[in-house]
Amino acid sequence: MPIPNHLLPPKDGDYYSGLWTNGVAAGANGELLEPKSPIDGSATCQLRAASASQVSEAVSNASHAFEHWRTVPPPRRGEFVRLIGELVREHKSQLADLITLEAGKIRAEAEGEIQEWIDVCEFAVGLSRQLHGLSIATERPEHCLIEQWHPLGPVGVISAFNFPAAVWAWNAMIGLVCGDPIIWKPSEQTPLTALACNQMVQLASAKFGVDAPTGLSAVVIGRADVGQALATDRRVPLVSATGSVPMGRAVAELVGARLGRSLLELGGNNGMIVTPSADLDIAVRAITFAAVGTCGQRCTSLRRLFVHTSIANTLIERLTSVYETLPIGDPREPDTLVGPLVGEQALYAMQASLAAAHDQGGTLICGGDRVTSGVPEGGVYVQPAIVRLPVQTPVMHEETFAPLMYMVEYESFDDAIEMHNAVPQGLSSAIFTNDVREAHRFIGPAGSDCGLVGVNIGTSGAEIGAAFGGEKDTGGGRESGSDSWKQYMRRTTCTINYGSELPLAQGIRFGE
Fold it and tell me: What homologous superfamily does CATH list for 54-266+475-492?
């Protein structure tokens, strides 16, 4: 796949720079990275990483940009994001090429991710005229009590390989209309996508004019120490981090130690309940996409399936038939539905989980083998697997980032909900049922304990208009739609006395 070089900044000699701030390469002085494409294991580029000590420069530039950007009227900031959205529309296909190259996503999913960026731009533009507070009834005469929302400051974004553009876009587009510059530490697996995304912002800045300071968007590509430097910098009031639970805990501790804010989107380990009344035709389709889409490498991928005993054998037979016909291979080919794992380590984790499931009484129903025929040499391709277990065992409490789904039968609906909620994670959940009582119980306070709850849909696939995020070890963060914008702003409660007296709250009298 040719790299769309016109979307990328110029190289610094033979390699790309992993430090971009104030719209230019800033002389990255970290180690030389050579990320590999999941498609065939070939190098996608050479890149000089930023060092931890260089993060401070990007934060300084973002802090300086904030001094001006916070005073630009929000609708004007929305116009800037509108320009970004227009550029992304224009380059949607080429941006999707980079995602396929670096993350291994099939073409439809890569384009869908860029469409998500476009959609959140549209959402953010509308939001730019709705950053409103409250007028509150006051107990004091001739007083006015209001709440206002003001820009927060530079926002740090730490993202993972599997959504190399969308997660940053959720944070960046909303953060920009809220008045915040963005400092992005992307995955070392997907640096070209990050540089191209940043180029879209730089091109929009050039069109927008002097109201857009050069330090609005920065990219710092490097190892974990770069993310740590971003998390510990007191000038970054909010750090939004997406990735593993251990990574999120580390970020939360660093940011919390300085009393900053963390927005965490961590592990999923998502479950679905299929009841006797379920429409199995759509259930099979939803289960398949949720379990094998992105080769099982979504935080919302389906990991645990709880099926009523009366329909378990029928559902397994139907799923097995579908799994046996899944087109596995090169994600650049239009008919492929399952692309590669990100690398050998992901295959090792999948094989370890399959072995643990076997030791815990599981039966492999289908899949699990590495695919070597008809796929690009050098990539890691696997058959999506289903394992049937007699009960929910310890291996089901751990998320394996691969197309591996466990199935357990249940007899009572109470037992199904209890098993569903019995894991540490709490991101996405679903139920297939045509019983309105079961549906409402599942979405109610005694049902699913997840942040995302679906009825007769799969666990993966979220719309940008609603808040995205989960509970428990998933981190409690909310990104994208609804009122998630409030995380990128600071609230002030303002009391205005327009009278000639000084009444005190709670009827207190002092010095009269």
Answer: Aldehyde Dehydrogenase; Chain A, domain 1 (3.40.605.10)
Sheet with 16-17, side-by-side order of all strands? 16-17, 47-48, 32-33
- What is the distance between the alpha carbons of residues 469 and 476, in angstroms, rounded to a whole number? 7
Cβ within 8 Å of residue 298, ≥6 positions away? 162, 163, 268, 460
Q: Considering the candidates 188, 265, 438, 479, report the single residue annotated as catalytic.
A: 265
Among 45, 178, 299, 450, the one annotated catalytic: 299
Q: Tens digit of pLDDT for each residue in 313-359?
A: 999 999 999 999 999 999 999 999 999 999 999 999 999 999 999 99
**Nearest-angstrom CA–CA distance, 247 and 255:** 12
CB count within 10 Å of CB 62 equals 28
As a whole number of angstroms, the distance between CA 164 and CA 189 comes to 9
Question: What is the structure's pLDDT at 403?
Answer: 98
The reported pLDDT for the residue numbered 2 is 64
How would DSSP label each residue in 30-66?
S-EE--B-TTTS-B---EEPPPGGGHHHHHHHHHHHH
- SS3 of 228-269: the string is HHHHHCCCCCEEEEECCHHHHHHHHHHHHHCCCEEEEECCCC
Note if 265 is an active site residue.
yes
3-state secondary structure of 109: helix
- What is the distance between the alpha carbons of residues 259 and 2, in angstroms, rounded to a whole number? 45
Which residue in the block uniquely carries the two structure tokens 């089901």? 396
On whether the CB atoms of residues 59 and 26 are closer than 8 A, the answer is no
CATH superfamily of the domain spanning 270-455: Aldehyde Dehydrogenase; Chain A, domain 2 (3.40.309.10)
- Helices 166-177 and 107-127 cross at an angle (nearest 10°) of 10
Contact 344, 5 (CB under 8 A): no
Q: Is 409 a catalytic residue?
A: no
Q: How confident is the model at residue 21 (pLDDT cuts 50, 70, 90)?
A: very high
Q: Measure the CA angle with vertex 315, ends 351 and 341; round to 5°.
A: 30
